[in-house]
């Protein structure tokens, strides 16, 4: 009997021990499985290198190459306007007529005065010639000869004075007809017909040239140094022209490329920037003076640069970084230095080299200094299929 009881007790103890061991092992396995499930699964990609032309973007403004205020250069009533506001006008085209009568009268008088002066000069010259012959024969006094000489010189001077007066009268008369000094587009009329205008009246209207046209922009000293180092800005003006592109306010790319033709000779002490300018063809007048555009200046020299897609670069208070995986399969922050943006990439100047690996998928669940599971391409495909 005692033997049977001992066997029963032994079986009971064995069952209890088995259940306890099985429970602990189950907890261990479940914890291990949960840990494996919670460890982020990631994919690695390699840092690449591309050939590209270095470029810099900056806000710019469209500026007319020529902008001329049309002003009255003589006084009088504004009789005629020979254009419609907003018209495209040609150089030399008649635009305004100021009342010309008084200036025409002055011109006619000046012409008559010149004719009189010339006639008097001819007579004085003849008188002098006769007196010169007579004084040589002692038929007249030397003083009489001197008088005719002086009269001749005065008459010739009067001719010059009358000629100058005629030129002045003709100039004033011509000023009654105001023409366009350039090809361009005329703006709003500031003074209407019938008003009295003078040299103090200000601009009657303004003409601005539209083709070619300027785009001006500014870069800071660091950007300008980058332009010079990248040979975007040549050392000498005679070198290969610099290509410039602009994007219009609606986001469309302007179809004509410009040429950089000017950069200032100093950095502004107020803004810390330097002014640059490019000239663009504008046959369809899409570039309007005063409009704001985005300017892109790029080098003619092809360079090799280390790049990484922008989506994989994160940022904290220390700076920009990517996640890399060390030999222990732990995610680590790798801080990088970025020089500029190129298409969908960041150009990396320090921190990464070509061929270095970084985490490119699974970033959302990655925690710095925590383990990760690196998937191979086929494992990644299976994981996506399960989802």
Automatic annotation (TrEMBL):
It comes from the Bacteria. GO terms for molecular function: transmembrane transporter activity. Residues 107-176 form the Multidrug resistance protein MdtA-like alpha-helical hairpin domain. Residues 68-201 form the Multidrug resistance protein MdtA-like barrel-sandwich hybrid domain. GO terms for biological process: response to antibiotic. InterPro entries: MdtA-like_b-barrel (IPR058626), MdtA-like_BSH (IPR058625), MdtA-like_C (IPR058627), MdtA-like_HH (IPR058624), RND_pump_MFP (IPR006143). It holds the Pfam family Beta-barrel_RND. SUPFAM superfamilies: HlyD-like secretion proteins (SSF111369). Transmembrane segments: none annotated. It is found in: Cell envelope. One of its GO terms (cellular component) is plasma membrane. Residues 306-363 form the Multidrug resistance protein MdtA-like C-terminal permuted SH3 domain. Residues 212-297 form the Multidrug resistance protein MdtA-like beta-barrel domain. Belongs to the membrane fusion protein (MFP) (TC 8.A.1) family. This is Efflux RND transporter periplasmic adaptor subunit.
